[in-house]
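Narrative progress, year one. The postdoctoral researcher (J.K.) led the effort to move from monomer predictions toward full complexes, under supervision of the PI. The following entry was the first complex the group processed end to end, covering 1010 residues in total.
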Amino acid sequence: MPETKLSPELEAVVAAASAAAPAFAATEPAHRARAIVAVADALEAAKPRLVEIAMRETGLTEPRLNGEVTRTAVQLRLFAETIVAGGYLDARIDYADPAFVLGPRPDVRRTLLPLGPVINFSASNFPFAFSVLGGDSASILAAGCPLIVKAHSGHPELSNATAEIASTALREAGMPEGIFHLIHGREAGVQVLKDPRIKAGSFTGSINVGRLLADIAANRPAPIPFFGELGSVNPVFITADAIAERADEIASGLLTSVSGSAGQLCTKPGFIFVPEGADFEAAVVRSETPLPEHRLLDPRIAQSFNERRDAILGAAGVRAVVAGGVRFDEQGQGWAKPTIVAVSLDDFRASHDALVHEAFGPLTILVETPAGTDLAALMPEFYEGNLTGTVHLSEAEASGSTENFGELRALVAALAKQVGRVLFNGWSTGVAVTPAQQHGGPWPATSNDSSTSVGTAAITRFLRPVAFQNAPAAFLPVALRDDNPLGVPQAISPAGESQNWGSLV
Amino acid sequence: MPETKLSPELEAVVAAASAAAPAFAATEPAHRARAIVAVADALEAAKPRLVEIAMRETGLTEPRLNGEVTRTAVQLRLFAETIVAGGYLDARIDYADPAFVLGPRPDVRRTLLPLGPVINFSASNFPFAFSVLGGDSASILAAGCPLIVKAHSGHPELSNATAEIASTALREAGMPEGIFHLIHGREAGVQVLKDPRIKAGSFTGSINVGRLLADIAANRPAPIPFFGELGSVNPVFITADAIAERADEIASGLLTSVSGSAGQLCTKPGFIFVPEGADFEAAVVRSETPLPEHRLLDPRIAQSFNERRDAILGAAGVRAVVAGGVRFDEQGQGWAKPTIVAVSLDDFRASHDALVHEAFGPLTILVETPAGTDLAALMPEFYEGNLTGTVHLSEAEASGSTENFGELRALVAALAKQVGRVLFNGWSTGVAVTPAQQHGGPWPATSNDSSTSVGTAAITRFLRPVAFQNAPAAFLPVALRDDNPLGVPQAISPAGESQNWGSLV
């Protein structure tokens, strides 16, 4: 197998991560969990210093960044909890069965084991929660996989400071040397991703870069899984009755969701389908939700957003509802105020190519749908996979008792086919870090829709199943032993049950 | 997105499968399960007729094929059982939590939903169990995904007959039209795999073809998961003490495993590492295990096996222990008797390229390892991923009380890193169809190591997670409802628990 030739620095990183893999995989879950909690504690202890760097490097606000540090620490603690609880191991034990329906069955036991070294490409827009110690890193470390983080170029100083905290805390908690590394530079990331010792990759960023990396992972001599969270336009559907019931509340929620973090969120609602004539626009215009100017992450993103905004405003039939705009300061940084535009469904269709792609910044498009529009058919018509899809219903509609129930159910079913999370009467920004969360979706929302990048199920991305047949206790992974010293959930298939398979249905 | 232009016949197939997806996804689990049991019953009812065709088309023996039909029917019944039990849905419910540590948490519920239409490429060597109604097909249908089977060219008549049985049984059981299709021809399979309406692929076969198809799936405009089970050489390690204790029993087991189905099994043990001087060869030579001549699947496979056998016998240092051989009859069919060869570890290393690749047929290689060989280092040195790895230990070694325990544990750990199933004192052929089974392994054993193609976990390949946030009951998937009418397992996260995250570890 052709080896990638790495620079001496990268070779040292990959060699150390690879050498550390067996020892890290063998750490006791409770020990690994304590180390992860120690990392969370150290992160929070350094909050003022880190937030100061982050404000300077990203232009995000202090309250947002303070909240993000807390979120990142909570996320680490949740993964610590997850590995101690042990359900994520999916431990299965089939006892030997002399009466098995296909002839004597051996004792077969199966659990999930860590993949080995993983590279995680950080995001620009969450310098904590999707960066050096973000959700991907937390789940990689929790899984017991050595981690190489490729720092995002937008916050290098913060990345270094965070990595230093993580390395120190992991070492002091007694974790093996070599399980945590930070590297800089896209080419370095690509080289590491190509290395045969790397067993998976994760990424949060644009469709273009994500596709590039996913293709590299898939086309290696030995392909590896690549979990990229890419682009999303997060459509929202608001019914006429919901507007009649609470137009002002919905308008205010929309403006808050679109303007928060200057719209630089993967779950920002990008398209709002509203019934023609329901006059939702008026509610947006009269809303008193504060829409302060907010710095965009970096000059490149600001320039790109400004161009997208111009193109959208210039498309046939597009009207500005809230004008907003981008101002560039003397350092070249862009400062944005939110832009809300409206367009008829016909004009949206006519200007499809100019409008449909994600505008990464504070802008959303109201699409006015004529009465009788088949809402369930809209998403498949205009976009592929998305992270989220949202419906706003009236109280009566939510109860399922209205005449349009079938139509609404069809819309929800259509969304469920194309998104990872379907929301009701809420906003997609603000992704709860919680066991049932799903942050993913069909291409191009992610490069791998079988998984989530937020929530405890995220850990499964970095594990692989292994079965042990007739293994003596001394050779079994602890989670599969009869005495179950870790107290993890074990799904037991007793002898004899196969006789009834198929007769119970 | 550029659409693949399909022939009218293939277009009709893909359009029908795509149109059937919502209705099939919406079938009640118990209804789908009854339909799958009906398919199993119909398959078994047709056993004599189908086995007659299979014998003619594949050269496999009647007892083997009878057993395979039973196995295939049991597999279908097991999946019926699985979908009624509902644990595979991984239903998670996080109740709304006003006291959530990051601020009020919405109600979030997550379950797995069917991917949509899937294409399954059948295998040559299991005309029932990995073909039209095999494990992949069973898990695709159980998941609620419309299925397009690409028939293997080695048993077209059997494929047609089996498909007819499946179509009739599914229709009579009230399943939606369009959920089951059979197509013939590799180019047709490739065209379907490229179609944007197809959401996943599965495959059992060679590394070359599997890689070709995996690359197609990964490089589509919208990439899809592709679950290929490819090649494997299934190494076996036998200790000196195991040989001293029961050489004849082990030799007999080996010969049975290598010769069964003429060695045309993906789990056939291909390399047997034995200690130099332990004289395991003598036990093989004196074994009275019957080694009858067996027809190979088709002339192409026979020719290819014969060439591989010649190349192996011609490699430097290789000695025939049991000569065996291939004879071609007047129809061009090849008939094989098992071949066992031996080689020293040094010669094995020297002839690595000639020896290391899978020989698909009844042949295995004994590799004699000098005392002091680091067994744990052998696998990483000579091969990548495998489906299985096996160790034969003495009774004392199995108890973990011998001096070489550390060495043996290191060997087992090394195998667990590179294979999907680690066996003790048994043989890898004969893969039990059972909940804890794992039939997979790192590349090139499979193209996607996160999953299994045998056992109930196989169903997960054809599902994707979707979360529902603050969904009114009328809009929730049934598995996520509070009243839980299906009685499926639901993992509940109550309000308030986040306050303790990280403090319990």
